[in-house]
Amino acid sequence: MRPPGTLAYPLPAGAVLDRLALLRVKQDLLTHPPHRRIAAAEHALVLRAWTGSGLPAPRELPAYASMSVVHRMLWNLENVVRAAERQGDLGPGFVAVTARIHRLNAVRAAHRRAADADTAGTGVDLVEVPQCLDAYADRIAIAEVRRHRRPDTNQVGHLILRDSWLSRGLPDLFDGDLFRRLCHTNDRLWSAKEELETTLPHAPVAACRRVYLVNDARVRAKRRVAEALRCALRDVKEYVRYPPPAGWDDQSLTWSLPAPTPEGRR
Known about the structure:
Elements: E1 6-12, H1 13-29, H2 33-52, H3 62-87, H4 92-118, E2 126-132, H5 133-149, H6 157-167, H7 177-199, H8 205-228, E3 248-249, E4 254-255, H9 262-265
Antiparallel strand pairs: 1-2, 3-4
């Protein structure tokens, strides 16, 4: 039976194990008790789906411990870059930390592939995992962005996800501002990650900043979806807070530099 406030989504074993590791780390590192309870509730749901598929206990798989270590490192480093944004400390060290985050995410992806290989003999290709509604809406938005950016790929994924959403009697968000914002932030995040990847390890500071500025806007867009749907279960974050940088337009997700003065043009 589907838990309330969730929709089932099929994921490879490595992705599910990665989510379990992250949710367990969140229970240790989130500071607000209500947030820890939400993470614990989601962890219990995902773990039930995992064990119900007949897969080994997460701790029996070497990738699980490795994923947990990577998530703790990413948690700390991501707070470092946001603290640097708040303090205006955007020198070479800031770029180096951003590059390290990028490398760790590649390591995390390798651990997911290793977990897929470790579970290949179980006969379980995909696990039906309960997804928070804000996370599910985000997956639909990502599918929409992929459809526009890669028109040569399968075009039905987003429709299947939408149909699953609507068949459960959930509100039709897909022509509204909430969903458009979610699509916009995911599209901009795609561009920001591509720009960063092509310029590392000597990326411009602006490219480093753009990734988390846009990602944090995406987090806010997901939170608005959760609030609109009154979701008790949602994807919780506790990033270090910082003021918007000078010239940053949070609607277009770009820097709006002032026009040059007549004196500056001469």
